[in-house]
Design brief:
heterotrimer, A mainly alpha (about 550), B alpha+beta (about 400), C mainly alpha (about 170), A: about 550 residues, 20 helices, about 0% strand, globular, C: about 170 residues, mainly alpha, Four Helix Bundle (Hemerythrin (Met), subunit A), 2 domains, about 70% helix
Chain lengths: ~550, ~400, ~170
C-alpha cells in the first residue's frame, strides 16, 4: 500500500519488519526440518558412534526447527497473543507461585523415595547392595514390588531415580534451587520495596506491569537492564571495575548455602555455620571498596570508604550479639540453634531472658548497618553522593549490586529468625503436630503449614525485611560521625554488657528455676504485645485511612 | 572574573604558630558538587576542598540559570514583564508578581480595589505555604527521609488545584498584574480554601512528629551552620534565614505594605533549645531553627488566610489601568516579604511605556553569599543540611 | 582423587595470587591478588577439614587485615597513578633470593618423612575452645594482651591533637 506523505512511515516500517521476521523464521524452520530429515535418514543407515552422533544432531536440528516455527507463529499472531497474555498474566503468575512452592517440595520427596528404595532393595535380596544401584536394578524393583505398569515408564523413572543417588547431582539441584530462590527473593524484594515505599508515602507504587499491582515490574526491569549498553569509564581500572560487582554478589549468594530452611532442608549443615556466615558478611566489604575505587570517581570513593568504615565497625556489636544465643544453646550449628526452639512461642531464644531480647535488638540494628539500609544508608546517600559506590555502574552490573543487597537483607532476616525468633517453627509447639510428620502427603503438607516448615522461615524473614523497609522510608539518614559514635560509644558497650550479663545468667540461673521461667514469660508477653500492637496499628490505619491520608488520595487513585 | 587558584594543603593543618600538626598526611580532594546534583536545589555548583570527610572550604559558583531578566526588563512593558517575574523564584510565583506589581503601582500611583487587595494577599499567603512545603520536603529528602517530601507535595496538590481553578496554571501564574489580579476568584474558591485550611492545619503537627522532633533529624541539623544575628544582618540575610538567627524582622509586620496591617499574626523567630518543646541541642541560628521558622510560618499564613476569608469584601478586583501605561520619570524601590526573604524591585521610569531599568534584588542571592562562610570545618554530609536550610532557588540567585 | 584435583587448583590459585601480588604494578591490584591468595588458603583449610580455621582465616585475614590494607591504600595514595616499578637490580636480587629459598624448601620437603595423618580428628570448636582455656591458657592471655596493646597504640596514634580542626563543633 502506498503511504500518504503526511503519515509517519515508521509505523509501516515496523509492519515490514514483522513480515520479514515471519518469513525469515519460517524459512529457517524449513531449513532445519530438512537438515533433521537428512540426518535422521543417515542415522538409520549408519551404525555405531557415527549413527549415534547423527541421531543426536538430528534431534538438535529438530528442536531448532520447532523453535523457529514457534517464533514465526508468535510474531505472526502477536496481537491476539498479546491480548491473551495480558488477560492471563495474573492467573499465570498465581499458578507459577503455587507451582514454585510445589516443585521445591518434589525433589525432597524424590530424595526420600530414592533413599527408601536403596534401603528396601538391599533388604529384599537379603544382602546389602552396592551403592549406587544400577538402572536395571531400580527398574526391576519398580516393575516388581511397586507395581508400575508399563516397562517404558519404569525405565524412565528408573533412570531419573538412578541419577538422584549421586551426591553431585543432588548438590547441583540444590545449588540451582538456591540460585533460583535468591533471584526470586531479590526480584520480589525490589517489587515489594516499591509497594511499601509507595504506601508509606500515600501513593500506590507499581500498578501496571503484568496487571495486578505491577507484579511483573521486577521482571521487566531485569530484562531492561540486561539489554542496556555497557558503559565503561575511560579512567577506571577495567579488570577491577568488571570484577567488583561479582566480589560483592558472591558472598551474598554463598550465604544461602549454609542457611537451613528447615531441619532437613539445608545445602551444607556446617558445624561452624554461624562463623561461616560472619566470614561471608565480612567479605562483602571488599566488593564495595573495589567498586568505589575502580570507578575513578571521588564521590564513589567517598561512598565506598564510608560504607567500609560503617560495615566493619558494626560487625563487632553484631558478633557480640550473635554470641548470646550461641551461649544459650551451646552450638554454632545453625540447625541445632533452630531445633532448640521447637516448643512453641515461649521457647524462642529471644524470649529466654532479657539479655537475649536485648541481643536480638542489637543484632537487628547491626544488620541494618551491615546491609547499608537507612538510617545507615550513607553509602547510597542519593542526595549527597548520587549513588555512592555504584554510581558509575549501569545495566546488569548495577542490578547485581541491587540483587546482592536484597539477598543479604533476606539472609540476615533469616539469620535473625533462626537465631532468635523460632527458626522454621510456628508459634505452636511442634509436639502437638508430631504425629503428622510421618503420615500421608496431605498430612505432611498441613504439618508444614501449621507447625514447622520452610514457609514459616521464609515468612518470618520477610517480616524482618519488611521491618527494614519500614525503617528506611520513615527515618532520615544518620551522618557518618554519628554512625560511628552510635556504634562505638553506644552499641558496643551495650553489646558487651549484654554478653557479660548473659554469661552470668547462664552460670547462676538454672534452666528450670522460677526466675528463668518468670523471665521467659515476661519476655514472651512483651514480644506478643509488640506483635499485637503492630496488628492493631495496621487495623487502625486501614479503618481510618481516609482521614489519615487525605480524601484526595483515596478518591482519585483506584485501588487505594 | 579572576579564577581562584587552589593550592594543595600547605596551609591546612597548621596551628597558631604555623607548626604542622598533621602526623598523617591524608589526601586532600577538590570535589565538585553540581551543577547537576540531587541536593543542590537547582543548578548550583559548589567546589569543596575536603580533607577526607571534612570540608575546609566551599565556594559557590553561580550563573548557570542566568536568563538576563533585568535586561529583558528594559525591553518589555510592565505587564509583559510579569511572566518573567514568575520565573525568578519559580516556587513563589504569586509573591514575585505581587512585589513587581506593587512596585509599578507605586510608581504610577495606581490604587487597587479592596477585593483585589484581599485576593492578592490570599494568593500570596497560599503560595507561601506551597513554597515552604517544597522547602520542607526537599530538605527532608536531602537528609535521607524520603517520606515527608511526598506528604508535602500531597498537600501542595490541593493548593495547586486551587491556583489552577483561579488562573489555569500550576507553577508560573502571571495572575497578579498591574492594578490587581487579572481575574476574579471563581465560584467555590473560598469554600474550597476553607476546606483546605481545615484539612491542612492538623497536618503541620504531623510533620512535626514525623520530622521536626525526630531524634536523628535533630542530630543532623541542630548546631550545624550556626549564623549569629550580627553576621546575619551584616551579610544581608532576609527571610527565615534572618529570623532563624533570632532577629525579629519581617517586612509584613515591621514595614507593613498593602493591607498586612489589618491582620493579626506572629513572626516566628529562632529560640534556643530547652524552652517550650524545642529540642535541647538547638542553638539559635542553626539549621534546625531556620527549618522550624518555615514550619511555624506555614501556621501563621494559615491564620492570615482565615482572616482574609472573614474580611474579604465584594467588588471589583482590578483597577482601571490604561492599555499603554506610561511610566513617570522617577524611580521606585519596593521590597516585599517573599517566602525566601525580601524580594526587591527597583523600577526606573523615563516617561515611556518601557522602564529604563528594572533591578531585581533576589533574596536567595544574598542568602547564598553566607554559604562560603558557614561551610567551613563541617562534614560533607553537613553541606547538604546547610544549603537545604538556607533554601535557595537558583532562579532568584541568577535571574 | 577429586580431593587431589581440588588441592592442586587451590594451591595454584594461592601461588598465582602471591606471584601476582609481587609483580603487580598498581597497588590495588596487589591487594586483590592478596585477596585471592588468602581466599585460596582458606579453601585449603576447608579441604583439610579445619572448618573453623578456614572461616577464621576469612574473617581475620580477608575481611579484616586486607580491608585495613585497602583502606590505607585509598586514604594515602596519590590516586590510581600510584605505581610500583622496581629497579632491575632489585628484581635480580629478589629472584636470586627466592630461587635459593625455593631450592632449600624443596630439598627439605623431599627429605622429610611426613607422618601419615590419621582419620580427621574431631577438631570441633568445643575441643578447640576448651583447650584454649585449659592447656593453652597462657599463650591465649598473652595474645589478648598484645592485641590490647595494639588497640591502645592505634587509638593513641589517631588521637586528635590540640587545636586541630575536627568535625563540626558538636560531637555526633
Amino acid at each position: 500500500m502506498s503511504t500518504p506523505d503526511s503519515c509517519d512511515r515508521r509505523v509501516f516500517q515496523a509492519e515490514d519488519r514483522a513480515t520479514r521476521a515471519v518469513r525469515g523464521f519460517t524459512l529457517l524452520g524449513a531449513i532445519f526440518v530438512l537438515v533433521c530429515a537428512i540426518l535422521a535418514f543417515g542415522a538409520t543407515r549408519v551404525s555405531g558412534v557415527a549413527g549415534l552422533l547423527a541421531g543426536l544432531l538430528a534431534a538438535g536440528a529438530g528442536g531448532l526447527a520447532g523453535a523457529s516455527l514457534l517464533i514465526a507463529l508468535a510474531v505472526r499472531f502477536r496481537e491476539p497473543l498479546g491480548r491473551l497474555l495480558a488477560r492471563v498474566a495474573f492467573p499465570i503468575f498465581m499458578v507459577a507461585v503455587v507451582a514454585t512452592v510445589f516443585f521445591a517440595w518434589v525433589p525432597a520427596l524424590l530424595y526420600e523415595e530414592v533413599d527408601r528404595l536403596a534401603g528396601s532393595v538391599s533388604t529384599a535380596s537379603g544382602e546389602p547392595r552396592q551403592m549406587p544401584l544400577g538402572v536395571a536394578e531400580i527398574r526391576s524393583y519398580l516393575l516388581g514390588s511397586c507395581g508400575v505398569g508399563s516397562a517404558w515408564v519404569a525405565t524412565l523413572v528408573a533412570s531419573l531415580l538412578w541419577l538422584l543417588q549421586f551426591g553431585l547431582v543432588r548438590d547441583l539441584i540444590t545449588v540451582t534451587g538456591i540460585v533460583v530462590f535468591v533471584s526470586l527473593v531479590a526480584m520480589f524484594g525490589i517489587w515489594w520495596e516499591r509497594k511499601v515505599a509507595g504506601r508509606i508515602q500515600s501513593r500506590l507504587g507499581p500498578m501496571r506491569v503484568g496487571g495486578w499491582h505491577g507484579w511483573a515490574q521486577s521482571l521487566a526491569d531485569g530484562l531492561k537492564l540486561l539489554q542496556k549498553e555497557d558503559i565503561f569509564l575511560s579512567g577506571a581500572d577495567r579488570p577491577l571495575f568488571y570484577l567488583a560487582p561479582y566480589v560483592a554478589f558472591v558472598p551474598a549468594l554463598s550465604l544461602f548455602s549454609v542457611l537451613p530452611f528447615s531441619a532437613a532442608w539445608v545445602c551444607r549443615d556446617l558445624e561452624i555455620g554461624l562463623i561461616f556466615i560472619l566470614a561471608l558478611l565480612a567479605l562483602g566489604v571488599l566488593g564495595v571498596l573495589l567498586a568505589g575505587w575502580s570507578s575513578n570517581n571521588k564521590w564513589s570513593l567517598l561512598g565506598s570508604m564510608r560504607e567500609a568504615c560503617q560495615m566493619i565497625s558494626y560487625e563487632i556489636p553484631l558478633g557480640f550479639s550473635l554470641l548470646v544465643p550461641v551461649m544459650s544453646v551451646g552450638s554454632l550449628r545453625l540447625t541445632t540453634l533452630g531445633e532448640v526452639q521447637a516448643n512453641g512461642f515461649t521457647s524462642w531464644v529471644a524470649f529466654a531472658s532479657p539479655f537475649t531480647l536485648a541481643a536480638a535488638v542489637i543484632f537487628f540494628i547491626g544488620t541494618l548497618a551491615s546491609c547499608k539500609r537507612a538510617p545507615f544508608d550513607l553509602p547510597e546517600a542519593e542526595s549527597e553522593l548520587v549513588a555512592g559506590y555504584h554510581t558509575e555502574y549501569s545495566g546488569f552490573r548495577w542490578a547485581l549490586f541491587f540483587f546482592a543487597e536484597y539477598a543479604e537483607m533476606f539472609a540476615v532476616g533469616a539469620l535473625a529468625t533462626i537465631l532468635f525468633f523460632g527458626a522454621w517453627y510456628s508459634p505452636l509447639p511442634a509436639a502437638w503436630g508430631a504425629a503428622w510428620e510421618r503420615g500421608p502427603i496431605w498430612q505432611r503438607a498441613l504439618h508444614g503449614i501449621l507447625f514447622s516448615g520452610p514457609l514459616w522461615l521464609i515468612g518470618k524473614s520477610l517480616f524482618f525485611v519488611y521491618l527494614q523497609m519500614w525503617l528506611r522510608w520513615t527515618l532520615p539518614r544518620v551522618r557518618l560521625d554519628q554512625v560511628m559514635f552510635a556504634c562505638v560509644q553506644v552499641l558496643l558497650p551495650l553489646a558487651l554488657m549484654v554478653l557479660a550479663g548473659n554469661s552470668f545468667w547462664q552460670l547462676w540461673v538454672l534452666p528450670q528455676s522460677g526466675l528463668a521461667r518468670l523471665a521467659n514469660l515476661v519476655c514472651a508477653v512483651l514480644g506478643a504485645l509488640v506483635l499485637v500492637a503492630m496488628l492493631a496499628i495496621i487495623v487502625y490505619a486501614r479503618v481510618n485511612r481516609r482521614r489519615l491520608v487525605g480524601s484526595l488520595v483515596v478518591e482519585h487513585l483506584p485501588g487505594a | 572574573m579572576q579564577e581562584r587558584v587552589y593550592h594543595s594543603y600547605p596551609d591546612l593543618l597548621l596551628d597558631a604558630e604555623g607548626e604542622d600538626l598533621a602526623d598523617l598526611r591524608t589526601e586532600e580532594m577538590l570535589i565538585n558538587m553540581g551543577p547537576q546534583h540531587p541536593s543542590t536545589h537547582g543548578v548550583l555548583r559548589l567546589v569543596l576542598r575536603t580533607d577526607g570527610e571534612l570540608v575546609l572550604e566551599a565556594v559557590p559558583h553561580i550563573g548557570y540559570l542566568h536568563r538576563c531578566a533585568e535586561k529583558i526588563g528594559e525591553n518589555l512593558a510592565p505587564y509583559q514583564f510579569i511572566p518573567i517575574t514568575d520565573r525568578l523564584d519559580y516556587l513563589a510565583a504569586m509573591n514575585n508578581n505581587y512585589a513587581f506589581s506593587m512596585a509599578v503601582e507605586q510608581l504610577c500611583g495606581i490604587e487597587v480595589p479592596e477585593r483585589g487587595r484581599y485576593v492578592r494577599v490570599i494568593m500570596s499567603e497560599l503560595n507561601r505555604i506551597a513554597s515552604h512545603l517544597v522547602s520542607f520536603g526537599s530538605y527532608a529528602l536531602d537528609l535521607g527521609a524520603f517520606t515527608p517530601f511526598l506528604y508535602g507535595f500531597r498537600e501542595r496538590e490541593y493548593i495547586l488545584d486551587l491556583f489552577e481553578s483561579a488562573c489555569g496554571a500550576r507553577l508560573t501564574y502571571s495572575y497578579i498584574t498591574i492594578g490587581g489580579p487579572a481575574l476574579d476568584l471563581p465560584e467555590g474558591f473560598l469554600e474550597n480554601l476553607q476546606q483546605f485550611l481545615d484539612y491542612f492545619e492538623p497536618k503541620i503537627d504531623e510533620y512535626n512528629q514525623l520530622l521536626s522532633y525526630n531524634h536523628i533529624f535533630v542530630r543532623r541539623t541542630a548546631g550545624v551552620g550556626v549564623i549569629s544575628p550580627e553576621d546575619a544582618i551584616a551579610w544581608g540575610l532576609t527571610g527565615p534565614c534572618l529570623r532563624g538567627s533570632g532577629v525579629r524582622w519581617d517586612l509584613r509586620k515591621c514595614m507593613p505594605y498593602d493591607i498586612y496591617d489589618r491582620f493579626e499574626f506572629e513572626i516566628p523567630v529562632g529560640v534556643p533549645g530547652g524552652s517550650d518543646g524545642i529540642p535541647r541541642a538547638v542553638v539559635v541560628g542553626d539549621s534546625w531553627c531556620r527549618y522550624f521558622v518555615r514550619i511555624a510560618e506555614m501556621k501563621q499564613s494559615a491564620r492570615i488566610l482565615r482572616q482574609c476569608l472573614e474580611q474579604i469584601p465584594d467588588g471589583p478586583v482590578r483597577a482601571k489601568v490604561p492599555r499603554v501605561l506610561k511610566l513617570p520619570s522617577k524611580e521606585v524601590y519596593f521590597e516585599a516579604e517573599n517566602p525566601r526573604g525580601q524580594l526587591g524591585f527597583l523600577v526606573v521610569g523615563d516617561g515611556s511605556p518601557i522602564p529604563r531599568r528594572v533591578k531585581i534584588r533576589g533574596p536567595s542571592f544574598c542568602n547564598l553569599s553566607i554559604a562560603s562562610q558557614i561551610c567551613r570545618n563541617v562534614l560533607v554530609a553537613d553541606i547538604a543540611a546547610i544549603i537545604g536550610s538556607i533554601d535557595v532557588v537558583m532562579g532568584e540567585v541568577d535571574r | 582423587m577429586s580431593e587431589a584435583a581440588m588441592f592442586y587448583v587451590f594451591a595454584a590459585v594461592a601461588a598465582g595470587g602471591a606471584v601476582g601480588c609481587v609483580i603487580a604494578v598498581s597497588i590495588v591490584r596487589m591487594a586483590l591478588c592478596l585477596l585471592a591468595t588468602l581466599g585460596a588458603v582458606a579453601l585449603l583449610y576447608f579441604l583439610l577439614g579445619a572448618d573453623f580455621l578456614g572461616a577464621i582465616q576469612l574473617i581475620v585475614y580477608a575481611g579484616g587485615t586486607l580491608v585495613v590494607i585497602v583502606f590505607g591504600i585509598m586514604l594515602t595514595s596519590q590516586g590510581s597513578a600510584a605505581r610500583f616499578l622496581p629497579r632491575r637490580g632489585e628484581v635480580v636480587a629478589g629472584l636470586l633470593v627466592s630461587a635459593g629459598l625455593l631450592a632449600g624448601l624443596t630439598a627439605i620437603m623431599l627429605r622429610t618423612e611426613w607422618p601419615q595423618a590419621g582419620a580427621a580428628s574431631e577438631a570441633s570448636v568445643l575441643h578447640l575452645g576448651s583447650r584454649l582455656l585449659s592447656t593453652y591458657l597462657v599463650p591465649f592471655e598473652l595474645a589478648s594482651v598484645v592485641l590490647l596493646a595494639v588497640m591502645v597504640g592505634a587509638a593513641y596514634l589517631a588521637r586528635p591533637l590540640a587545636g586541630r580542626r575536627t568535625g563540626s563543633g558538636h560531637e555526633g
